[in-house]
UniProtKB/TrEMBL annotation:
Transmembrane region(s): none
A Gene Ontology molecular function term of the record: lyase activity
A Pfam family matched in the record: Fumerase
KW Iron (keyword) present: yes
Domain of life: Bacteria
The protein's name in its UniProt record: L(+)-tartrate dehydratase alpha subunit
InterPro entries: Class-I_Fumarase/Tartrate_DH, Fe-S_hydro-lyase_TtdA-typ_cat
Lineage summary: Bacteria, Pseudomonadati, Pseudomonadota, Alphaproteobacteria, Hyphomicrobiales
Domain Fe-S hydro-lyase tartrate dehydratase alpha-type catalytic residues, every copy: 11-282
UniProt keyword list: 4Fe-4S, Iron, Iron-sulfur, Lyase, Metal-binding
Cited PANTHER family: FUMARATE HYDRATASE-RELATED, L(+)-TARTRATE DEHYDRATASE SUBUNIT ALPHA-RELATED
Length: 308
């Protein structure tokens, strides 16, 4: 059984790591962009980012003044048992979010949508979000802390099947140019594309594609992987660089996740996981062992299954 004390200590550590430590895949992606960028201004921005991340690690302070919206992803083995059940787990995650908002500290970004009341702890109705996924033949639980910006850098469109891949590319490029010109996303970003599913599932897939896959990974479906490569190449040729300056360094990578959809439509969503790529992962085992790692491993053969 996974004990609440273990969950609490792990959740607190994940909140700190997500706020302060940039994952290695994002670091390497930005280094690659800095080496390839030919324009002075975006190259200066990229190098400043890399330096800022080092200072944040040394001082153990959040790497960005806007610390985003803390949220949780939970992948549970089918045989996992938690002290207090999953209600106990959710109570721990809410408590850890509130406690670490003050301790790290994080900016309390969550407010009531009408009264604008702020409880100063990033908690409230529906906050933090806790999303679940499940795996067969396992008794562990993966906790993934993600601090994602909650304002801009997101769009959605219902395409027709006849729009095809060219329509997806056109929508992607339209979004990139708007994000860059209007300052709606902090580039360079990992861009997640949700393709198919219902309207709400399409949005969820896009956000997960952005936040829960390491840069450089590719979808196991060859057609989807080819689309990822094409969209990344398109981003590099868009003329947009880091922070919207003229250049070629707007995108660290593009990830596409797909779901079977209505025969008459092709919903597409896009999400930017900004340069402050804030995520941290741990696996909690039934014997009390906790393994921290960098790859969320959210998408698995089971989660992407097509058969019954």
């Amino acid at each position: 059984m996974i004990l609440l004390d273990t969950l609490d200590a792990t959740a607190g550590e994940l909140m700190r790591r997500a706020a302060i430590d940039i994952p290695p895949d994002m670091r390497e992606g930005v280094r690659r962009l800095a080496e390839a960028e030919t324009e002075d201004l975006p190259r200066f921005v990229l190098n400043a980012m890399l330096e800022n991340w080092e200072v944040a690690e040394q001082d153990r302070r959040a790497m960005c003044a806007d610390t985003g919206l803390p949220r949780w992803y939970v992948k549970a083995g089918n045989d996992a048992r938690v002290e207090g059940g999953f209600i106990g787990l959710e109570r721990i995650l809410r408590t850890a979010t509130a406690r670490e908002t003050a301790a790290i500290p994080l900016r309390p970004n969550r407010v009531h949508p009408l009264s604008r009341r702020d409880l100063n702890n990033n908690c409230g109705m529906g906050a933090p979000e806790i999303d679940y996924s499940f795996e067969p033949d396992a008794d562990w639980i993966d906790l993934i802390a993600v601090h994602k910006g909650g304002l801009f850098g997101t769009d959605w469109r219902m395409l027709f099947p006849g729009d095809g891949i060219d329509g997806i590319k056109r929508f992607f490029l339209d979004c990139l140019l708007q994000f860059g010109k209007r300052g709606l996303a902090c580039q360079p970003a990992i861009f997640g594309i949700g393709l198919g599913g219902s309207k709400d599932a399409c949005m969820v897939l896009g956000k997960q594609a952005a936040c829960l896959r390491p840069a450089g990974s590719r979808h196991p479906d060859p057609q989807i992987a080819a689309l990822e490569d094409d969209l990344q190449a398109l981003a590099e040729k868009s003329g947009m660089g880091a922070m919207g300056f003229v250049g070629r360094s707007m995108s660290v990578d593009v990830h596409v996740e797909a779901a079977y959809t209505h025969t008459g439509g092709m919903p597409v969503s896009i999400h930017a996981f900004c340069l402050s790529s804030r995520r941290a992962v741990a696996r909690l085992h039934a014997d009390g062992q906790v393994d921290f790692r960098d790859d969320p491993q959210w998408f698995t053969p089971y989660s992407r299954r097509e058969g019954l």
